[in-house]
Amino acid sequence: MSTLTTRAGKGTPLTNTEVDTNFTNLNTDKYQSGDSVAFAGVTFTGTLTAGIDASVSAAGSAQGDAQALTKTYNIVNTASANQGVLLPDCAAGVRVTVFNSTANTIKIYPASSEAIDDGALNASISLRPNKVKEFIGVSATQWNTINDNVEVLDNTSVTTGSISVSGETSLLGDLKLGVSGTVTAAGTTQGTATALSETVSVITTGTANQGVKLKTAVAGLKADIYNTTTADLKVYPNTSDSIDGGSADAAKILPAKTSMSLVCSNATNWEVIRPLAVYDTSGNILN
Questions:
Q1: What's the CATH number of domain 179-271, 2.60.120, 3.40.50, 1.10.3210, 3.30.230?
Q2: DSSP annotation string for 131-173
Q3: Architecture in CATH for domain 52-145
Q4: Per-residue pLDDT tens digits for 181-211
Q5: Chain centroid to CA 205: how far?
Q6: Does this model's pTM top 0.90?
Q7: Segment 41-58, tens digit of pLDDT
């Protein structure tokens, strides 16, 4: 609050010095365009309109060339797939909202050496078409998303990212796994075998002793392989992995017109799931 000398308060006309002092005090305490303001409390009786940029164009393919955001509310209306926007420098209490009104998934990056949620420094998050993310700064380097950290999925396909669920999960309707329906076996070694990329793989082409190769083992990962050919094929683990606790890199035979289901028991070993186990007279498993 500026200290002012008034004629009524003084009881006599002000001197030139007192008038100048009043103006100096007012000039020191004034707010003007571009200043940051702080209030002990604010009550609105009408509409509050915060800074809005309603025509943001996403850009680039990395943090360094993403489009910098400058407003509190940002509507991205132009973007190619995986182009990005860059959040402003973080500070505790700062809030930013980003709405993706385009038909493409975009990336949202923090400023340099900052992070979003549990992500690594400088790592982006994805924002699907017609979805919104709201961010709040919890420190000078950390943004947190505040719309539950959960995105409700509609009928739009999600093609990237991982989902981890703790506890019981109930599914309504069908569960559809990733399928490669026309796999061609190849090669005669682990290094030249066809690499499998989906949970369910249907081998439709292959000659005797050609092979396929599993993904790198990760505990809990599952694979179903169907050999629809008339040839006995080989199923290899990935480099340095094993199947059924056997030698590293050693293949298992997948006979013609049969299937094999496997699950990883740890980070290096696949186990074959057998509804029926067949042994020879020495106790060695045959299937």
A1: 2.60.120
A2: EEEEEEESSSSEEEE-STT-----SS---S------S-----S
A3: Sandwich (2.60)
A4: 999 999 999 999 999 999 999 999 999 999 9
A5: 36
A6: no
A7: 888 888 877 899 999 999
CA distances 277 to 213, 237, 274, Å, are: 23, 21, 6
